[in-house]
Amino acid sequence: MPEGTMKAWLESSHLSGGNTAYIEELYESYLDNSQSVSEQWREIFQELPKIEGADVEYRHSAIRDEFRELAKQPSRQVVVSSGADAKQVKVLQLINAFRFRGHQNANLDPLGLWLRDKVRDLQLSHHDLSENDFDKDFNIGSFAAGQESMKLGDLHKALKKTYCGSIGAEYMHITSTEEKRWLQQRLESVQSSANLSKEQKLDVLKGLISADGLEKYLGAKFPGAKRFSLEGGDSLIPMLKELITRAGTHGAKEVVIGMAHRGRLNVLVNVMGKNPSKLFDEFGGKHDEVLTSGDVKYHQGYSSDFVTPGGNVHLALAFNPSHLEIVNPVVIGSVRARLDRRNCDQGDLVLPITIHGDSAIAGQGVVQETFNMSQARAFKVGGTIRIVVNNQVGFTTSNPQDTRSGEYCTDIAKMVQAPILHVNGDDPEAVVLATQIALDYRNEFKRDVVIDLVCYRRHGHNEADEPSATQPLMYKIVKKHPTPRQLYADKLISEGSITAGQADELTAYYRKLLDEGQCTVEQWRPMTAHSVDWTPFLGHDWDDEYEKEISIDKLKELAAKVAKLPEDHPVHSRVKKLYDDRKKMASGEKLLDWGMAENLAYASIVDMGQRVRITGQDAGRGTFFHRHAVLHNQEDGSAYMPLKHVREGQGPFDVHDSVLSEVSVLAFEYGYTTAEPAGLTIWEAQFGDFANCAQVVFDQFISSGEQKWGRLCGLTMLLPHGYEGQGPEHSSARLERYLQLCADHNMQVCIPSTPAQVFNMLRRQVVRPMRRPLVVMSPKSLLRHPLAVSSLEEMSTGVFHNVIGEIDDIDKKAVEKVVFCSGKVYYELLEQRRRNEQENVAIIRIEQLYPFPEKELQAVLEDYQHVKQFVWCQEEPQNQGAWYCSQHHFRAAIPAGTYLTYTGRKASAAPAVGYMSVHVKEQQALVNEALTVE
């Protein structure tokens, strides 16, 4: 607008007087991001007069914050004359600018491809300073240089070395002043220089020689074979060895590592200590004769021990499928189990390390989910070291605009205020320093920290790929670029730390180890009993005998404990009514409902001294208001858990309302159970169909982990399932998907229909000496169904009945039709048959659909050898549910010469209808059809 018009408007508007604070905030928002204010305000601010010699206005808030910090430090008060005051403020602004934005001008890219504009905030002129001020002394505020003042020239040099060298530190997004001051002290006190001893430098060089040597050896011996080489990111090897050594020195007993395929073979041989001859055999197609499918070599896990000054550290590299980031929560879950076993709630004894690709960490949603879990009570492990092998290429995509929307691939870490240390992979000493700072920060503050190892990929996505086809400019540079080993060896030779002959000797010695098939890791030690003993759970089958029964007296004792409420803990009236009923159930006045039976199962397990761990989005209460394992005081909000008060010295009981995620939480619990075979670990979906979001975990870990990797897992998954007229997304847990994954007795799929069945099913998962996953189609309406009740006597047998025969007193010889079914529909069939007063139809429940109980079903059918009509009845559409996957099992069990038909909803693309009236009509029709005798 014209100048005169704007002036008149300003004088009469809300821009005057008492609104200045509001306007200042708007203006600072505009300085941060011009798009954050309205177009009208942008026009006003753009019309403001420019100050000669200044590119942009400096934010007042930064100045205020700096002086507030100075005010807390009386020993560093700024006492200057009025003439020098402006310069002094500008010097403090300069320090702050380097802390905030120095990383943007750091020397991070080994290839020199990053085209980054000079940051104006880092220029002396931006702060009204120049080289003419270099000899002047200024107070340096909180800059950790060990002195209160410095000449500007020395300060400027120190700032550039600290923040614009081979380490670019991002930490000013952290709100904790203590954490920021800690990081400033560590970086600024040494000006981001590692200052390694000669022996330490030699260790770094050995790590680089081993990284480079293995890749060259494999490339020469197995040309063109896929190995997803580490070349270009070689500094990962000395980084990991430094992390493990330093962790062990500070008392860690275990380190669990998760990574995708890039560089995995190098880590296996040069960190974990896998014998290279075994790797060479795998490349040659040799392998031990096994009955499992196995997996490709760059998905394999490994365990070993690694000696450190603090003692041996047990290493575990998690098995990983091709999904690039799904292993992250698996690793964290495994770490949590190890910490729980060691009664360590701070994370000091077990260190998790996750290794990411640059495109994957930004692109895969499970990364965000795992970051979000990092401080949640159910999932925290004292912080994770997250390493990004940033080779600047996502498969064939090298343009960051195609792989992410932020400046860095690590921007996702800012959501949990994790510090991010970007480091040039061609400067291994900077890598070591960043590693030391990262581990010490994690140990000090128990929080995640990220190391962004900026490097490159010397070959294509795999060794058969031609990268120049899609990245011609990058690979012109890569082909000429010396290896990290060569660069560092030359550096050490030039500074006199070693001779060229010594470097050659080290390279030759490593080659000799490979030729002889010897372990290449000096710190490797034979594995001892650091982890849990799986021996009691090996070699067992489904039918092995075990101690099943539990006495009635013990059940009554446990039931009384489960139903007991403290007098000084008032609960909601509905919960009070539920617990009054539980007291009656405990005394034998009432039969037990589902919630009581389930809690009683947990009580029996913790009474054995075993752990129970349950997570889910409503796990404490239960989505359908049935569990109430956590009782909330209605006056002060405190929580009481009866299952924590079963007896002195009982097993732990942990129930957590989880973060709102399926895939990361289920992967976490899978990792937990692969590291903890004892006790009962449960993941409960809020609705069974929500497990769709975690399908990758079912596909790549739960159903196939034993077949691919020999990894046992006793995880139990409760998936609420049942057609209640709640629409397509709240009816089916997609039973058919789990049955399709079943083979080789890899897991169990059960649909219990009574409280006694759920009690014995859950106990069976612990007392049976076999550990395989259990998928449960758990109920909704049956939680309070008047017929779905059980006695203590039914529970005391300890037997889960895979098949339940006819319960009504009907003449079996008069039966003309047998109906097979599972789950809720059984009660609808039973009630309708009773209303019909039919005695010519028998109803048999299949409570375990896999492994299919063929012998048990045949035993039940002994009384029905005369029957010709057999039908499978299900609520789900014909192309869903158990029909397609299980009909061959039904046919194999029925008498010869008979036939089997289907009754249920017709095939459908959606799991259920969305209208209650249609649902009711369909449900009644399938029940009537099942009971009709032809």
From TrEMBL:
The protein's role, per its UniProt record: E1 component of the 2-oxoglutarate dehydrogenase (OGDH) complex which catalyzes the decarboxylation of 2-oxoglutarate, the first step in the conversion of 2-oxoglutarate to succinyl-CoA and CO(2).
Q: What is the lineage of its organism?
A: Bacteria, Pseudomonadati, Pseudomonadota, Gammaproteobacteria, Alteromonadales
Q: Which GO terms describe its molecular function?
A: oxoglutarate dehydrogenase (succinyl-transferring) activity; thiamine pyrophosphate binding
Name any cofactors this protein relies on. Answer: thiamine diphosphate
Organism equals: Thalassomonas actiniarum
**What name does UniProt use for this protein?**
2-oxoglutarate dehydrogenase E1 component
- Which residues constitute the signal peptide according to the record? none
SUPFAM superfamilies registered for this protein in UniProt: Thiamin diphosphate-binding fold (THDP-binding)
Q: Which GO terms describe its biological process?
A: tricarboxylic acid cycle
